Amino acid sequence: MADRDDVLGAAQRLLNADPTASMAAVAEAVGISRATLHRHFDSREALLVELGTRSLDRWEQRLDEAEEQALEAGEDPGRLRAVLEELVLAYVDDSDAFAFALTDHVILANAALVERTQVLADREAALVAAAQEAGVLRRDLPLRWFGHVTYGLLVAAREAVRIGDIAPRDAGRLVLSSLLAGVGAP
Amino acid sequence: MADRDDVLGAAQRLLNADPTASMAAVAEAVGISRATLHRHFDSREALLVELGTRSLDRWEQRLDEAEEQALEAGEDPGRLRAVLEELVLAYVDDSDAFAFALTDHVILANAALVERTQVLADREAALVAAAQEAGVLRRDLPLRWFGHVTYGLLVAAREAVRIGDIAPRDAGRLVLSSLLAGVGAP
């Protein structure tokens, strides 16, 4: 008997491969009837919102870890840079599992998820402020821009992997290097 | 009487504001009946594919211009860099109009659009190769990665503008500067 976690796991894998998959297709992928699926989630939107919630849970967990490390790093530029690099590489790992959720229009428009996203983005911006202060990140860019660029590069890497332009194992290095140093010649 | 262009223009504006808008909502935004809308486009997918086609038409136009300028620039690094900068700034302008199409899952999955995207991406990669050769772009990155990063930054800028984190007038400068130099301190 498929429990809620099984349903969510199978739905996520299917939606990553086909973001427009219907509830009927999700039920088939899980191996349950459409009626059973509807007992778990009464609409496609409810299912998407739950998947969006899980991706924010993961983001929050990563920020918890990074904030703890940043506290230990104090104002040491090398250690703060390492904290940020580890955070971005963790995002790249996570974005593979939560791929479709990055750009799903239903998830991006859900009020509760949007509100929580803002809270997490502010926590991330506090880490960026410390890194700017320590000379690790450019000070001429808006605090919240770092998060947007990181998000954009996660979307880019997912798309590049999906169509076969880069190897999955190269995604972390390419995202991190492009984020920090850009693609222009030094 | 609304013609096809009026319908497409109104649909594009509505979908940029609400990417999940239904055909009924599109008809209302255009000011026509649903039956009339269906005479223009027999499904929501057909409408989205037409909008995706228009965004690729624009991309192709921008590449035509850039290739002509690159031909004149020859191997001059300064001029090649200017060509790329102008191209990216043009993309930022265009992405405001075609915003939702950047990440629409129906558009991204359409076989004809995907095939045409690959052809255009290869033309862009040829410009990147010339710029790498002239020392304008990093040579340690895959040719097609430049296009992916640019795409990711367009998605990032659109999202940052949409939620009010950056001013629309700053989008071009932020995208270009982050693309070429990254967000890390030099």
TrEMBL record, chains A, B:
Residues 49-76 form a coiled coil. This is Helix-turn-helix domain containing protein. Residues 1-59 form the HTH tetR-type domain. It comes from the Bacteria. SUPFAM superfamilies: Homeodomain-like. Residues 22-41 bind DNA. The lineage of its organism: Bacteria, Bacillati, Actinomycetota, Actinomycetes, Propionibacteriales. It comes from Nocardioides pini. InterPro entries: Homeodomain-like_sf, HTH-type_TetR-like_transc_reg, HTH_TetR. Keywords: Coiled coil, DNA-binding, Transcription, Transcription regulation.
